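Worked example

This section walks through a single chain of length 357. The input is the sequence exactly as stored; nothing has been trimmed or padded.
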Amino acid sequence: MYAGLIDRQSERASPTQALIAEARRRQRDRRRRSARLILALALVIAAVATGAIGLTAGGERAPDTTSGWQLAGPKQPMPLQLVVWTGGFRIEVISSRTGRVVRTLATNVGLYRGTPTLAVSSAGVVYFDTARDREEWIESTPLTGGRVTTVAAGYLPSISQNGKLLAYVDYTSQPEAIVVRNLATGATRTWAFISDVADISGLSWSPDNRFLAYTASYWAHAGQTPVDVTRLLDTRSGGTLANQPRIPLRHGLDWAGFLTVHVGMAVASYPGSRRSLVAIATGTGRVLRRLIVLPHQELSVDNAYDGTEGTITADATGHDVLIATAGPRGYGEILRWTAGTRHLIRVTAGALRAAWG
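Given that input, the structure is written out below as tokens.
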């Protein structure tokens, strides 16, 4: 998953070697694209605060209410801070209202790999993935600033809303697996695939701290476009990652995370129409309503096959959503949408990942 990472399957003979090679080729392509993007980011002045400037969504009106379902809780004041990863390879805390930098938490993050994933716990701990010593690691640091600590080998950290469970992807043994760690006891549980072909591209927790949504890409034949399948893992159950129930998303929808236990977000991309963020029923995949029309600039994804991994994040109540885009100049921009409003708010430029602090 990062430049220079050793192919861990190069010496393993397998009947599915051609499919594995295709998956690895896809990962190498993603790393090259990420490296080019990061080089461009390094050439500009990152983290230029632009203030909270309203952006109209193509003149289209979003509904004024969120009728049709109950959000995760009563509307709370918007969190005052965001945690972002900038083009200067830094993890920073910024004001959610002005975009101004409050403090720097870590430097040289993402130098040897593509865009990191950020997760912030309710206990005030920031988790992120980065590469060093030719391996990928989950690391943590206090939101208030302090020492950076190594948590585990892996990538794509995701923290449950109660701050007690940390999920991440384990690559140290094949096939790929999802690990859930109890942060209080250190105990872990692991769910793996039954073949080496599937490639995990995202993790997101449900608000009740029980379910993990994950998207896996499968190559039916070498050289073909992979098929993405989004599933729900019940972390209180057993089984493999291949036999968990699917979120039946129709063509043109990419999973983007939870709003409530039974309602998720997806990015709808249909020919001839603007991309939109929509609400869907997690049990049926049915589109419940359009939430907001997205801007023309691309979402900040590592690869076209990765969907919306890490680019869209709702707060604990489901009322405020962060959207990471490539920005009009291609060096990153974080936008915010609040449920019931008709426009997006530009929070800051020069950043490609964000999480609520």
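What to look for: The radius of gyration is 19 Å.
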